[in-house]
Amino acid sequence: MSQTIEAPRTPVRPARKKGVNWEKWGWIYMRASGVILVVLIFGHLFMNLIVGDGVKAIDFAFVGGKWASPFWQWWDVAMLWLALIHGGNGMRTIVNDYARGKMTRGILKGAIFAAVAILILLGTLVVFTFDPCPVGQPADLLPSFCAA
Ligand code: HEM
Question: With 0-12 CB in 10 A as exposed, 13-18 as middle and 19+ as buried, what is 83?
Fold first, then answer.
């Protein structure tokens, strides 16, 4: 007995004959970012949970110390951008596969895009502007390791 598997509905629009094939680059991006994310995520987990005192060492000072280094700032920002764009593009594929109405697809993909853009913007700002000891703040609001 043979069974025919229905063709998936992605892409919603047939690939353009001319110009950039964005669907193909999206497909390649999922694989490339996946490989880099394995390194970034396992490096992150190893440094935070295994090295030194492990998970018990994670507190405000730990994060402040890590983000004092441009290396960890860029590590975390790379993880943020790659994972959010990867997750957003993956969700876009799922919406294209399963959402039937044109308007439903538009609303869902608009919401995904907005969430990704806002989280990338806020996350990047937090990592690069984070200051554990802001000048001019009341001493009782600052963590104990800040010089008075
Ligand atoms: C360990 C790192 C990761 C690897 C190696 C990885 C790998 C992949 C690959 C190869 C695909 C494409 C699958 C396909 O086209 O059939 C994919 C899809 C997807 N990924 Fe990841 N990924 C990783 C992390 C993440 C993270 C952190 C998120 C969430 C932010 C995420 C969310 C998704 C989503 C939503 C899809 C679409 C699933 C689908 O099409 O059914 N992935 N992933």
Answer: middle
Is 142 touching ligand 1 by the criterion CB < 6 Å? no
Say if residue 50 is exposed, middle or buried (CB neighbours under 10 Å; 0-12, 13-18, 19+). Answer: exposed
> CB of 143 closer than 6 A to ligand 1?
no
Question: How confident is the model over 70-100, as pLDDT tens digits?
Answer: 999 999 999 999 999 999 999 999 999 999 9
Peptide bond into 138 cis (omega under 30): no
Q: Is 85 in the pocket of ligand 1 (CB under 6 A)?
A: no
The angle subtended at Cα 32 by Cα 29 and Cα 35, nearest 5°, is 140
Q: Which fold has domain 32-131?
A: 3 helical TM bundles of succinate and fumarate reductases (1.20.1300)
